[in-house]
């Protein structure tokens, strides 16, 4: 029996209608005591049983599962040879045109009423009268557009391109005016003489030149707009889009619904090794993102006095003149450690507090009880959208949508700290301060005033000379002009193996280093800095920086063992305390503090190489 009708995209065709009738005749002979039968639609996948009217309604609305050729759940034996169909195969991934056809079918399928198992057994759905009440002319025209190539040799159709353009418009919050500007931009970049819309031609021409498939059309258009904004025009462009921030959950809703279905109901999966199918259930174990995205996904603000998303309300922070610093790493030392009482060389206080607590998922759920509920978006009820959080809300901005997953609160790591961005920020702090780079150094006049406020390191306090000019004494952690020149010459002389790193010498100019990429900082911090600074810094300053570089070398290793991580967890506390004795408090932003939590995350999540942003950003 030929069952190619299963793959027919047009669910309103006579072939598909006849196929449903043939299946319903078989299904009506195999119902259980509740007069129900497994539903083979794309949504249920024979995992749910419904009455015959509901099954018929599902087949109209969602389509028949494309892998269900032999109706074994309806007592059919393995006697039918699968028909070779040019339309699809069981293992073929859905194409973008399939997605477009599904939209058309859902839009033009007759009104079947409620299909969530509430249909009565005597209700009839999907008969010929219902089907022919749809606007067939419009449907056929759209089907024709979905089969017409956007341009010769293109896999995308005109309708597919339109769907993706509108998807991009909605996804990035483009207004009608800004969307028209986008089309004009694309037309200006790639003018063409053909009759198809210039925007479609421009986008697909770029895709063809870049060797990309048409499923990348929305990302390519967005990148094109960014390129145009940066290189062609100083005017406002649709690409100037504000990040969704707290509204991110709106975009995550479809993903969360699918993840809940994947965990609670599962999905039929093919096992190539055993040539069988099984119901697969799977959870999400964590997310991989940079630190600002960490705040958006977790719902914990990564700014302010409680910026650390691991320490939460126990975050140690201090208000400086123009920023907040995150020192206080003596809390992690043993109670009898002499540094705990050394106020002069640290922040001017004696530190006898216990380390911060480790918060469980249940603790976090209890904290959510104090959050003030607010509706997402520009809702009229949100009259206090810019209100300040109350102290009892801590740094929680909202309850993340991920907590709808029943297992999410039980995970030890929900969002990974991104090591590559931590390295980047720490490297910038160190290099900017050592070379006294304007705008990047942490040894500013305000930083010296912070030392005076804390009554520590009096030799570095600002002073006035006889003429009333403010005098700033040289610090032991900054290089002299001659040493800066020598260090920069050293960086210019370094040669790397092909593919190992970028040419960092191009970023060295006039005794300054600028424009370093994240991977440049990765190489500079771990490999170059420990060697380059030895001749120019005293041992008390040089050794903690070398130890910090060794720490990142070991934490980024391809293989790790628990004993080494236990040692690194102790070492990083000592290293951070040594740095507190050297650099001004302004040096210690939250990214420096996050280095302390990396060994713990490596214990729970494994090697860093599988949990950072390098593969994604490349």
From TrEMBL:
Pfam families in the cross-refs: DUF4218, Transpos_assoc, Transposase_21
UniProt domain DUF4218: residue ranges: 555-618
InterPro entries given in the database record: DUF4218, Transpos_assoc, Transposase_21
Stretches assigned to coiled coil: none
Transposase-associated domain boundaries: 3-76
Name used for this protein in its record: Transposase-associated domain-containing protein
Organism of origin: Prunus persica
Lineage: Eukaryota, Viridiplantae, Streptophyta, Embryophyta, Tracheophyta
């Amino acid at each position: 029996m030929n069952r190619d009708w299963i793959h027919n995209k047009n669910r309103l065709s006579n072939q598909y209608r006849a196929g449903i009738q043939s299946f319903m005749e078989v299904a009506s002979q195999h119902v259980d005591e509740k007069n129900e039968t497994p539903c083979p639609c794309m949504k249920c996948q024979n995992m749910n049983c419904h009455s015959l009217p509901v099954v018929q309604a599902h087949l109209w609305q969602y389509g028949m599962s494309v892998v269900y050729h032999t109706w074994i759940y309806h007592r059919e034996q393995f006697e039918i040879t699968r028909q070779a169909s040019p339309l699809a195969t069981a293992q073929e991934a859905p194409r973008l045109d399939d997605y477009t056809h599904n939209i058309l079918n859902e839009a033009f399928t007759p009104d079947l009423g409620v299909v969530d198992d509430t249909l009565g057994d005597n209700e009839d759905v999907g008969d010929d009268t219902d089907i022919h009440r749809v606007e067939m002319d419009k449907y056929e025209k759209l089907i024709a557009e979905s089969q017409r190539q956007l341009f010769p040799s293109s896999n995308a159709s005109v309708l597919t391109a339109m769907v993706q353009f509108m998807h991009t418009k909605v996804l990035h919050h483009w207004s009608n005016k800004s969307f028209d500007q986008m089309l004009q931009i694309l037309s200006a970049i790639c003018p063409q003489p053909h009759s198809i819309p210039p925007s479609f031609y421009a986008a697909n021409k770029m895709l063809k030149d870049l060797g990309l498939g048409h499923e990348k059309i929305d990302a390519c258009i967005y990148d094109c707009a960014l390129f145009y904004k940066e290189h062609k025009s100083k005017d406002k462009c649709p690409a100037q889009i504000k990040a969704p921030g707290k509204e991110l959950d709106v975009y995550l809703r479809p993903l969360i619904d699918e993840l809940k279905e994947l965990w609670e109901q599962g999905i039929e999966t093919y096992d190539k090794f055993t040539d069988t199918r099984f119901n697969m259930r799977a959870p999400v174990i964590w997310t991989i993102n940079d630190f600002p995205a960490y705040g958006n996904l977790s719902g914990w603000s990564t700014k302010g006095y409680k910026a650390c998303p691991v320490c939460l309300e126990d975050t140690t922070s201090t208000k400086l003149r123009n920023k907040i610093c995150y020192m206080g790493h003596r809390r992690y030392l043993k109670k009898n450690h002499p540094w705990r009482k050394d106020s002069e060389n640290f922040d001017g206080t004696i530190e006898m507090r216990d380390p911060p607590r480790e918060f469980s998922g249940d603790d976090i759920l209890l904290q959510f009880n104090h959050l003030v509920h607010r509706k997402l978006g520009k809702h009229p009820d949100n009259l206090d959208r810019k209100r300040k959080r109350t102290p009892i809300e801590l740094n929680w901005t909202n309850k993340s949508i991920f907590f709808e997953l029943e297992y999410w609160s039980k995970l030890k790591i929900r969002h990974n700290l991104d090591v590559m961005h931590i390295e980047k920020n720490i490297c910038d702090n160190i290099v900017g301060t050592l070379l006294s780079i304007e705008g990047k150094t942490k040894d500013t006049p305000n930083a010296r005033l912070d030392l005076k406020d804390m009554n520590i390191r009096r030799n570095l306090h600002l002073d006035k000379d006889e003429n009333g000019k403010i005098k700033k004494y040289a610090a032991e952690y900054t290089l002299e002009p001659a040493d800066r020149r020598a260090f920069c010459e050293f960086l210019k002389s370094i040669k790397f193996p092909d593919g190992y790193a970028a040419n960092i010498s191009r970023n060295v100019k006039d005794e300054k280093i600028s424009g370093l990429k994240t991977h440049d900082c990765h190489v500079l911090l771990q490999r170059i800095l420990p060697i380059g600074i030895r001749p120019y810094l005293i041992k008390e300053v040089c050794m903690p920086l070398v130890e910090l570089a060794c720490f990142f070398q070991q934490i980024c290793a391809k293989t790790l063992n628990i004993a080494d991580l236990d040692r690194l967890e102790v070492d990083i506390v000592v290293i951070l305390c040594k740095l507190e004795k050297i650099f001004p408090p302004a040096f210690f932003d939250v990214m420096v503090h996050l280095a302390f939590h990396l060994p713990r995350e490596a214990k729970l999540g494994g090697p860093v190489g599988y949990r950072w942003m390098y593969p994604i950003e490349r």
